[in-house]
Design brief:
Layout lengths: L7 E9 L6 H10 L3 E10 L10 E3 L4 H10 L6 E4 L5 H14 L5 E4 L4 E2 L2 E2 L5 H11 L4 E2 L3 H7 L11 H12 L5 E9 L2 E8 L5 E6 L8 H15 L3 H21 L14 H14 L1
Length: about 290
């Protein structure tokens, strides 16, 4: 019998002990999708910053020593995923990780987390945006939300009035920076949430789902974790986006049914079986 080689993703993100986001979301989701998650923590938090108080420990000074041991072990990965980064120094570290552990067969997924709803996060600076563009150029697939897509392309943010032609131009402009594919997430259009998918030179597609419930922290991490798992597993990008959007919708609905507090994100644990089934079904088909 041939040795089974499980797919592995190096997941670069912060670790928040409470609140369902970042690595505490990525690890179980990748596991459900049959992918080994290998975390690189950028910072340690007691809980995410949406709560009134939190403990925070920047892990920047420890990352080089952490990665040095991986180099000594000559580790390799099928995917490298970059999530929240709090400084220009961390962006440079991620670029080095991609250079050291990436190859032509490694899927590089960049989630350029800089803001949402037209507002930038507290860590945002113009210099950080410039360095983020450099990181985006190294990605195969980039998953900005609408705010981040506008920041990357130096456009003013508008919450409404996005025609398909304008969204196509936005996605192509990001592709021009270097990545093969771009998924602009969470565009609100009426009662729908639209994800804009530009995959190489293919026709840009607009995949929409009905908006339900209230917006919750961590849904972006859920979405990008599913996308990354699917890409490394060999799924078509449109298939990956459909599964991610459907799963997030189910998680929001279940969280509303259980009256989960907004700060606690989505109770995706209740629905991990959906991802296990999807991964099993895909494996059976291929």
């Amino acid at each position: 019998m041939a040795e089974y080689r499980q797919k592995k993703i190096a997941m670069i993100n912060d670790l928040s002990g409470y609140g369902r986001c970042s690595l505490t979301v990525a690890i179980p989701i990748l596991s459900a999708m049959k992918i080994q998650c290998c975390p690189i923590p950028t910072s340690i938090l007691s809980n995410h910053t949406g709560f009134p108080v939190y403990f925070f420990d920047d892990y920047s000074e420890k990352i080089p020593a952490y990665i040095k041991k991986w180099k000594e072990l000559k580790l390799s990965f099928d995917g490298i995923v970059s999530g929240f980064l709090g400084s220009e120094a961390q962006i440079e570290m991620v670029k080095e990780i991609i250079r050291d552990f990436g190859s032509k067969d490694t899927a590089i997924i960049i989630d350029p987390i800089m803001g949402d709803h037209g507002e930038t996060y507290a860590t945002f600076t113009s210099a950080l945006c410039t360095r983020m563009r450099e990181l985006v150029a190294m990605g195969n697939v980039v998953t900005p939300n609408l705010t981040e897509a506008c920041i990357l392309t130096d456009r003013p943010f508008c919450s409404q009035g996005w025609t398909r032609e304008k969204l196509k131009a936005l996605a192509r402009n990001i592709q021009d920076m270097g990545p093969r594919a771009v998924v602009i997430t969470g565009v609100n259009q009426g009662g729908y949430v639209v994800n804009v998918v530009a995959d190489g030179a293919k026709e840009i597609t607009f995949l929409k789902t009905i908006r339900i419930g209230r917006e919750r922290p961590g849904t972006g991490d859920v979405f990008s974790s599913v996308i990354a798992s699917c890409i490394v597993a060999g799924w078509e990008l449109n298939e990956a986006v459909r599964l991610a959007a459907s799963f997030v919708k189910k998680c929001i609905r279940r969280s509303e049914e259980l009256d989960i507090p907004l700060q606690n994100g989505v109770c995706f644990e209740e629905l991990l079986g959906v991802l296990v089934h999807a991964a099993d079904k895909k494996s059976f088909r291929t």
